[in-house]
From TrEMBL:
Residues 16-227 form the Cytochrome b/b6 N-terminal region profile domain. Its EC number is 7.1.1.8. It catalyses: a quinol + 2 Fe(III)-[cytochrome c](out) = a quinone + 2 Fe(II)-[cytochrome c](out) + 2 H(+)(out). The chain crosses the membrane at residues 43-71, 128-150, 157-178, 198-218. Its cofactor is heme. SUPFAM superfamilies: Transmembrane di-heme cytochromes. It holds the Pfam family Cytochrome_B. Residues 243-279 are annotated as: Disordered. Residues 263-279 have a biased composition (Basic and acidic residues). One of its GO terms (molecular function) is oxidoreductase activity. This is Cytochrome bc1 complex cytochrome b subunit. One of its GO terms (cellular component) is membrane. Residues 250-261 have a biased composition (Acidic residues).
Length: 279
């Protein structure tokens, strides 16, 4: 019974996929988008980029949902977060996912960067993708920094004060950075408004196209070290191996012929000796 149900469901699923593929070509497109050959060694480490992509997508989605209740003013920010946690439907869950995926994002992005570094993926022709990655890292750090102030509690407030102080030491640009971020003399309503705008509009709008470029460049060059990258070189190597084994075979045949000739000459000599000795 269960077996029949399962096979029937699979049949329906297959017909639905075929139907969609015939009309849209979406299945081929998805396959093209999702499948990327990776080197056999350490294949799991090549999922870290996709994990980063997954986490940042979660950030975007949960962030949009939080905006339904969050109010970016010094009077209401903390209270709105409190309401999200205690009154809004699924508020705890959505804020929890936003918070934890932000933390994991920073860790996973670091691991992804370490993988690309230790596997040498930053080398030509992928230098540009490495640079795009560094820009993405800085933008994500910016997201984390600006997001911290939005809850408008003691932790977020003082972390932002320290962060802005560090920025003020930037050679030449220090005072401008402080002015741009704080929007006044002290961290206050203008700062919250600016951090909100940067966190919700500026950085996501900058990150999205850079992710697009990152993925485009990845598709263009393929994963570093995959067989796909070395198709040409592997074909040449196989050709060389074939030729080498062919010439090896010829050499062996020559040796065999020589040995055979030597053997027959020797036996002719033996015959002659035997005849001579016997005569
Ligand atoms: C929002 C941040 C990022 C996202 C969403 C992202 C996403 C991805 C994805 C999906 C891949 C392909 C799968 C993989 O190789 O794991 C990839 C590859 C790559 N990423 Fe990232 N990445 C991000 C940040 C970074 C950072 C910070 C760096 C380094 C500074 C970086 C450098 C690279 C390089 C060089 C490749 C090509 C790897 C290869 O060909 O072997 N990425 N990225």
């Amino acid at each position: 019974m269960i077996g029949r149900l399962r096979s029937q469901t699979m049949e329906w699923g297959k017909s639905l996929i075929d139907w969609t593929e015939d009309r849209t070509g979406a299945v081929t497109l998805m396959e093209h988008f999702l499948y990327e050959p990776v080197p056999k060694r350490g294949a799991w480490l090549y999922t870290l980029g996709s994990a980063t992509l997954f986490l940042i997508t979660l950030q975007f989605l949960t962030g949009i949902l939080l905006l339904f209740y969050y109010v970016p003013t010094t009077d209401h920010a903390w209270n709105s977060v409190y309401y999200i946690m205690n009154g809004a439907y699924f508020g705890v869950l959505i804020r929890g996912i936003h918070y934890w995926s932000a933390n994991f994002l920073l860790a996973v992005i670091g691991l992804h960067m370490a993988r690309t570094f230790f596997s040498g993926s930053y080398k030509a022709p992928r230098e540009l993708n490495w640079i795009v990655g560094v820009i993405l890292l800085l933008l994500v750090v910016g997201l984390a920094f600006t997001g911290y102030l939005l809850r408008w509690d003691q932790d977020g407030f003082w972390a932002s004060v320290v962060g802005v102080k560090i920025g003020s030491w930037t050679p030449l640009l220090g005072p401008y950075i402080v002015q741009f971020l704080i929007g006044g003399d002290v961290v206050g309503p203008a700062t919250l408004a600016r951090f909100f705008a940067i966190h919700v509009w500026l950085l996501p709008a900058a990150i999205a196209p850079f992710i697009g470029i990152h993925l485009y460049l990845l598709r263009r060059h393929g994963e570093f070290g995959s067989e796909f990258e070395y198709t040409d070189r592997i074909a040449k190597l196989h050709e060389r191996q074939r030729q080498e084994s062919y010439s090896q075979l010829e050499l062996e045949e020559d040796d065999y012929d020589e040995a055979y000739d030597g053997e027959s000459l020797r036996s002719e000599d033996d015959d002659r000796d035997r005849r001579d000795g016997g005569g």
